[in-house]
TrEMBL record, chain B:
Signal peptide: none annotated. It is an enzyme of class 2 (transferase). One of its GO terms (molecular function) is protein serine/threonine kinase activity. It comes from the Bacteria. Gene3D superfamilies: Histidine kinase-like ATPase, C-terminal domain. Residues 34-133 form the Histidine kinase/HSP90-like ATPase domain. It holds the Pfam family HATPase_c. This is Serine/threonine-protein kinase RsbT. SUPFAM superfamilies: ATPase domain of HSP90 chaperone/DNA topoisomerase II/histidine kinase (SSF55874). Keywords: Kinase, Transferase. Its EC number is 2.7.11.1. The lineage of its organism: Bacteria, Bacillati, Bacillota, Bacilli, Bacillales. It comes from Gracilibacillus halotolerans. SMART domains: HATPase_c (SM00387).
UniProtKB/TrEMBL annotation, chain C:
Keywords: Phosphoprotein. Belongs to the anti-sigma-factor antagonist family. Residues 3-109 form the STAS domain. It comes from Gracilibacillus halotolerans. InterPro entries: Anti-sigma_ant, STAS_dom, STAS_dom_sf. NCBIfam families: ant_ant_sig. Positive regulator of sigma-B activity. Non-phosphorylated RsbV binds to RsbW, preventing its association with sigma-B. When phosphorylated, releases RsbW, which is then free to complex with and inactivate sigma-B. This is Anti-sigma factor antagonist. GO terms for molecular function: anti-sigma factor antagonist activity. The lineage of its organism: Bacteria, Bacillati, Bacillota, Bacilli, Bacillales. The keyword Phosphoprotein applies. SUPFAM superfamilies: SpoIIaa-like. Signal peptide: none annotated.
Length: 337, 133, 109
C-alpha cells in the first residue's frame, strides 16, 4: 500500500465545495474520503484536526469560540482513536487465531478420518458436520477380513478445540485395542478406563459401539450414555429404540455396559446419531424424536449416503443454516436377506 | 538544557493538574493540537492509574534534546501494589483502570516510546516519550 | 437466556433453586454456585430444578463434577423436581444410576 498523507488542501477543497453548493456529490466524496482514511488507519482526532485547519483557511475570521469548541471535540475523540487502534489490533489477532484453528481443524480431519467399509448386503451412509470449525462428534468404522464391522459414534461434552482434543484421545485408544477385542461391552469398558484417567472432573464422553457380524447379520451393541439409536423393522414398519444401560465414559472406573443384539432382516435399518440431531431446536421449540424419525423415514428409500445427506440438508434448513451443535448421522441398511 | 518538573498525585484533582502541566510543556515545545491532546490523555491515564491503584505517586516531566529532535519525557512512578503480570496488562482488551478504557496499551499508542517496570509490592514506573514531529 | 440461582437454605441443608436454561454459556455460573457447597465436609445440598426447562451436556458436566467432589468431601447432593426433558438426559447418560435424584413430582401442580 502506498503511504497516505492527510492532504489538507484536498480536504479543504471538498469542504469548500460542500459549503458553497450543499451538493450531495460533495457528501459522497466525504464518504469516500472516510473509507480511504480508515484503510490507512487515520485516527478520528486527525480528521477533526484537518477540519479545523481547513475551516480556518476558508474563514480567516473564524470566531475563537468555534475554534475552541472544535478543539474540545478533538479532545473527546482521542479515546475513540485509541479504541479504534485496539480494534484493529484485536482484529489482526482474531485473523491469526482463526487461521490457526483452520489448520487444527484440517489436521483433525486427517487424524480422525475413517473409511466407510464396503460390506456385501449392507448399505452404509454417514455424515458428520461440526457446528463450529472443530468437531466434537466422532464416528469410526473398522472392518476385519471376515467382513465383520465395528461402528463407533461418540460425542464429547462441550464444543470446539477442547472437545476435539478429547476426540483424538478416543481415536487412539480405539486404534490401540487388540484386534480380538470386538465385544462392544468390553470395548467401552476399556475406553472408559482411559477416559476416566485422562479428563477433568466435569468432562465426559458419550459413545455407542456396535459390532456387525456378517455371517449372522446381527448387530451387537452397547452404549456409554449415548443418545439411543433406532432400529427400523421393515416387517413391522416401525422404529424401535435401541435401549441399553451404560454410564457415560469418564465418570466412574467401575462402569459396566449392557450388551444387546439385534438381528437384521431385509430392508431393516439401523439409525445412529448424536444429540445434535435429536436436540434440534426450531425457534423456541425442540423437535420431538418422532418428528426426527419421520424425516429420516421419508428419506430411507434412497441409497444410504444420499439419505443421510438429504436428512442433514433438511435439518440445516430448519435451523436457518446455523447449527447449534455438531451433527452426526449414520444409517445402515440391510439389503439382501 | 534540561527542564524538569513534577506533579504529585494524591487526589483526583491532581490528575487535572498533571494534564495541564503536560499540555503547557507540549505547547511550548511546539507540538501540534492533536499531539498535545494525545500527551494530555497519556498523562491522564498514568495519573489515574496512580490515583486508583497506588494512592500516592508522582509524574515527572522532562524536555529531552537529541542531535536532531526534541521531545517530552513523562515518567510516572508510585510505590503501590505493583503489577503481577506485565504481559497481560499490555494485552489489548485488558484495562486495569477501567477509566478511559485505554489503559497502558493506550499510553503506548499515544506516545512514541514506552517502557514499563514493575514489581509486585514495590510499585510501578512507566516512562513514555513523544517527539516533536 | 439467563440463569438465576437462589439460595434457600433450610437449617443445615443448603438448597439451590436454579431458574432458566443450563447450557454452555450459563453452566459456569451453576458450577460456581454448586461446587463450593459440595466441598464443605459432610454438607447436604439439594438442587431444585423445577424451573430448569433446558439443560445440555455442559450442565450434566457440572453435576458430574459436583458428584465427584461430594465423594471427596463426604458430602451429599440431591436433585429434585426435574422436568421430563431434563430427566431423560440423566437417564440416557446413565447418571440417574449414580446420582441421588428425587423421582417424586412436586405436589400442587
Amino acid at each position: 500500500m502506498e503511504p497516505f498523507r492527510m492532504d489538507v488542501n484536498k480536504y479543504k477543497e471538498m469542504l469548500q465545495k460542500y459549503l458553497y453548493t450543499k451538493d450531495e456529490n460533495a457528501l459522497y466524496q466525504a464518504g469516500q474520503f472516510s473509507k480511504q482514511t480508515m484503510r490507512h488507519n487515520i485516527l478520528p482526532e486527525e480528521i477533526i484536526n484537518i477540519h479545523i485547519q481547513s475551516l480556518k483557511e476558508i474563514y480567516p475570521d473564524l470566531p475563537p469560540t468555534i475554534d475552541d469548541s472544535l478543539n474540545f471535540l478533538l479532545e473527546t475523540m482521542i479515546s475513540y482513536g485509541l479504541a479504534y487502534q485496539e480494534f484493529i489490533s484485536l482484529r489482526e489477532k482474531q485473523t491469526e487465531l482463526e487461521s490457526e484453528i483452520a489448520v487444527a481443524a484440517s489436521m483433525q480431519q486427517t487424524l480422525l478420518s475413517t473409511k466407510k467399509p464396503n460390506v456385501p448386503g449392507l448399505d452404509i451412509g454417514s455424515i458428520s458436520v461440526p457446528a463450529h470449525q472443530m468437531n466434537g462428534d466422532y464416528y469410526h468404522f473398522v472392518k476385519d477380513r471376515h467382513q465383520n464391522i465395528g461402528i463407533a459414534i461418540a460425542d464429547v461434552i462441550g464444543k470446539g478445540v477442547p472437545a476435539a482434543l478429547a476426540m483424538s484421545m478416543i481415536k487412539y485408544s480405539l486404534d490401540s485395542l487388540p484386534e480380538t477385542m470386538r465385544n462392544p461391552s468390553q470395548v467401552l469398558q476399556s475406553l472408559n478406563r482411559v477416559v476416566e484417567r485422562n479428563v477433568t472432573a466435569s468432562m465426559f464422553i458419550t459413545m455407542f459401539y456396535g459390532w456387525y457380524q456378517y455371517e449372522t447379520c446381527t448387530l451387537h451393541y452397547a452404549s456409554a450414555g449415548h443418545e439411543p439409536g433406532y432400529y427400523y423393522s421393515a416387517k413391522d414398519d416401525r422404529f424401535y429404540e435401541m435401549k441399553t444401560k451404560g454410564l457415560v465414559l469418564g465418570v466412574s472406573d467401575e462402569a459396566n455396559y449392557e450388551q444387546v443384539k439385534v438381528q437384521l432382516e431385509k430392508n431393516d435399518t439401523i439409525i445412529l446419531f448424536t444429540d445434535g440431531v435429536t436436540e434440534c431446536r426450531v425457534g423456541e421449540r425442540f423437535l420431538e424424536i418422532e418428528e426426527v424419525l419421520e424425516v429420516i423415514k421419508a428419506h430411507m428409500h434412497l441409497p444410504a449416503q444420499e439419505a443421510v445427506d438429504k436428512v442433514f440438508r433438511h435439518f440445516e434448513r430448519l435451523q436457518d443454516f446455523q447449527l447449534r451443535d455438531d451433527f452426526t448421522l449414520i444409517i445402515l441398511k440391510k439389503q439382501v436377506s | 538544557m534540561e527542564i524538569k518538573s513534577c506533579v504529585k498525585i494524591r487526589k483526583e484533582w491532581d490528575i487535572v493538574s498533571a494534564r495541564q502541566m503536560g499540555r503547557e510543556m507540549a505547547k511550548e515545545l511546539g507540538f501540534g493540537t492533536v499531539d498535545q491532546a494525545r500527551i494530555a490523555t497519556a498523562i491522564s491515564e498514568l495519573a489515574r492509574n496512580i490515583y486508583l491503584y497506588a494512592e500516592d505517586g508522582q509524574i515527572d516531566y522532562e524536555v529531552i534534546t537529541e542531535v536532531n529532535r526534541r521531545g517530552i519525557k513523562i515518567t510516572a512512578h508510585d510505590n503501590g501494589p505493583g503489577i503481577e503480570d506485565l504481559g497481560r496488562v499490555m494485552e489489548d482488551g485488558y484495562s486495569t483502570s477501567g477509566g478511559l478504557g485505554a489503559g497502558l496499551p493506550g499510553v503506548k499508542r499515544l506516545m512514541n516510546h514506552f517502557d514499563l517496570q514493575s514489581e509486585p509490592g514495590k510499585g510501578t514506573t512507566v516512562t513514555a516519550i513523544k517527539w516533536v514531529r | 437466556m439467563n440463569l438465576e440461582i437462589e439460595r434457600l437454605d433450610n437449617g443445615e441443608t443448603k438448597i439451590l433453586k436454579v431458574n432458566g436454561e443450563v447450557d454452555v454459556y450459563t453452566a459456569p455460573q451453576l458450577k460456581e454456585a454448586l461446587v463450593p457447597l459440595t466441598k464443605q465436609e459432610g454438607a447436604k445440598v439439594i438442587v431444585d430444578l423445577e424451573n430448569v426447562t433446558y439443560m445440555d451436556s455442559t450442565g450434566l458436566g457440572v453435576f458430574i463434577g459436583a458428584l465427584k467432589s461430594t465423594k471427596e468431601y463426604n458430602s451429599e447432593m440431591r436433585l429434585v423436581s426435574m422436568h421430563d426433558r431434563v430427566r431423560r438426559l440423566f437417564e440416557i447418560t446413565g447418571l440417574d444410576s449414580i446420582m441421588n435424584i428425587d423421582t417424586t413430582v412436586r405436589g400442587g401442580k
